[in-house]
Amino acid sequence: MRKIVLLSLIGAVLTGCSAPVSPPAETSVPETAVHTDAPVQSEQPKISLDGLSTKAVGWGFVRKKGSAPEVPLWQQETLARFGAYYLGDTSQKEIYLTFDEGYENGYTEKILDTLKEANVPAAFFVTGPYLEGERELIERMINEGHILGNHTLHHPNLAESGDETIREELDGLSEKCRALYGIDMKYVRPPEGAYSERSLAVTQSLGYTTVLWSHAYKDWDVNYQAGAENAVKQVTPYFHNGEILLLHAVSKDNAAALGDIISSAREQGYEFKSLDELKK
């Protein structure tokens, strides 16, 4: 089980919606990152925010075909410390499919159709405008067994936000979700993949689990869509055990390619799992 955050590396950076932020200046990053098992998390004591760094850290990595990315130990330890995930059980051929939903671009219905036909669970990380403005799609996600994840009310950089702002962004969205749909949000994906020690700790103290990702590609740019075949090539060679796959639902290519992506994964022996099945 890995609970890891990955350093932004020059040449092949992957982030959610924007470029990652630099790592803490005081941290020494080894030339060669080592991909090791992070410690299994135990019950967390009451969280103290005293002395925690507010230095922004970005989430990005160099992709590796057929295996999880390598990461510096200091990032592994930071994520594990605050109960966050980027990867599932690497001893199992399992994939956790997640989508970020900042706004609706007309493709989520097709994505849901494909998931239903293939009987695949997914998590949809939504923002405030999406939660309130796309009622029919949200209700369908819930009714078809998918997870609604918290992508904040207004999509701010949480690493640059104060404690109260983080609370307002996360709890504000969760309260709206409870009022509108009668369900609780358990998982948070920080916008842009940006975090600090303190933002992770505040998120955990509010009762949420941070979920990042172990594979993504530049799919969020609606002006750069290279076709379904390209989407398949960007995803399928990089399947790995315990993968948390991030796709953006605004992508026309993703919607068209999703069925082939699912079929390819299953042909390679992978099963699709819900985030609720992550080992805690």
Automatic annotation (TrEMBL):
PROSITE patterns noted in UniProt: NODB, PROKAR_LIPOPROTEIN
Residue ranges, annotated region (Disordered): 20-41
Molecular function GO labels: hydrolase activity, acting on carbon-nitrogen (but not peptide) bonds
Keyword check for Signal: yes
GO CC entries: membrane
Keywords: Signal
NodB homology domain segment(s): 93-273
Residues spanning the signal sequence: 1-18
Top-level taxonomic group: Bacteria
Gene Ontology terms: biological process: carbohydrate metabolic process
Protein name as catalogued: Polysaccharide deacetylase family protein
Protein species of origin: Candidatus Ornithomonoglobus intestinigallinarum
